[in-house]
Amino acid sequence: MDVFEKLYAVIEDRKANPAEDSYTCYLFGKGADKILKKVAEECGETIIAAKNGAQEETVGEIADLFYHVLVLMSAQGIPLAALADELARRAEKIGNLKTMKQTDRET
Fold it and tell me: Could you tell me the domains of the chain?
């Protein structure tokens, strides 16, 4: 998580101390619609890269997606610890195939 913590700290700093030449500040300035559009765009690009079997490109797109999700979290006031806590909570669950199949049908 160290790299995520460092990146999130930079994002938070950009939000608190805007700089003209910062892409992160540009996103904050444009607001939620732009940030959400970028999350969706990067998600789509990740899917296409993975579908094409381009591993290096997929890694790059996932990195772009994670960055934009972290910007979204910051914009929404969601601390990184909240995500870590939720993932830890889910990691402790033992899956139930019946429940998973039901969830798949609902999504």
Answer: 2-106 (1.10.287.1080)
